[in-house]
Design brief:
Blueprint: H1 8-16, H2 29-36, E1 44-48, H3 54-61, E2 66-71, H4 74-83, E3 89-93, E4 103-109, H5 120-130, E5 131-142, H6 157-164, E6 168-175, E7 187-194
Parallel strand pairs: 1-2, 1-4, 2-3, 4-5
Antiparallel strand pairs: 5-7, 6-7
The chain binds S-adenosylmethionine.
S-adenosylmethionine binds at residues 11, 22-23, 48-52, 70-73, 76, 95-97, 109-111, 114.
Length: 212
């Protein structure tokens, strides 16, 4: 059987048919707790593959001012555009991999697991390119495998460490102690900080073939 393409049409039909079983109905506690201790309310926040974007409700309540929501499915974007029509929230209907911008914090909530496994390295690259120096990915990843040919695609801590550690400092990658009941013992909380590129470490070759 040909491998399914998890593209805009795939996701939009899920939204059109209200097949949104991934939606936990509120922001996850671990993500909420993280943001409750962020003092600077002007940080630029991106939520890719945001779906119903429950996290944005919490962020607005807490006074965060610079929130961008991004989803590939037009139906999801229609829903959240209505939901947040009275708020200062940026809604973008676009493929994450085509998005351009620079953020301080990117929220990961069941987006990574929605992407085909062969996009994982590209996801890491793209996340790094969307973050300012020292910017962070904050959120949850599954710590289990689903052994299915369709999303969600799971993983484990070691796999994630190997995948992210070149571009990110792994500040936290630990079992989540406050998951919702159906996800208990199946998630890790992550706080990955983009590594600084120290200009002193970049070597330039001069016309004589010497590096300085
Ligand atoms: C499993 S759902 C999670 C939605 C939401 N984060 C939540 O936890 O309720 C994955 C979401 O990612 C969106 N999506 C999938 N591939 C995408 C891509 N390449 N770029 C942007 N959004 C994408 C889908 O439309 C869907 O809304």
């Amino acid at each position: 059987m040909a491998e399914e393409n998890f593209d805009k049409d795939y996701w939009n039909s899920k939204w059109e048919n209200a097949q949104t079983g991934w939606d936990i109905g509120s922001p996850s506690t671990a993500i909420s707790e993280y943001f409750l201790q962020v003092e600077n309310k002007n940080v630029k926040i991106l939520i890719p593959g945001c779906g119903n974007a429950h996290e944005a409700e919490l962020l607005l309540e807490e006074g965060f001012k610079n929130i961008t929501l991004l989803d590939i499915a037009p139906k999801a974007c229609e829903i959240i555009s209505k939901k947040f029509s009275h708020h200062e929230v940026n809604v973008i209907c676009e493929d994450f991999f085509n998005h351009n911008g620079k953020y301080d914090i990117i929220v990961e909530q069941t987006f990574f697991c929605a992407l085909h496994r062969n996009l994982r390295e590209k996801y890491v690259e793209k996340m790094a390119s969307l973050l300012h120096e020292n910017g962070k990915i904050i959120g949850l990843l599954f710590n289990k495998d689903f052994d299915k040919a369709a999303p969600p695609f799971g993983g484990n801590k070691e796999e994630y460490r190997k995948l992210f550690e070149n571009k990110f400092e792994i500040k936290k990658l630990e079992e989540c102690y406050n998951s919702i009941k159906p996800r208990k013992n199946t998630e890790v909380f992550i706080n990955f900080q983009k590594r600084n590129i120290n200009p002193k470490n970049i070597k330039y070759e001069n016309k004589h073939g010497h590096f300085r």
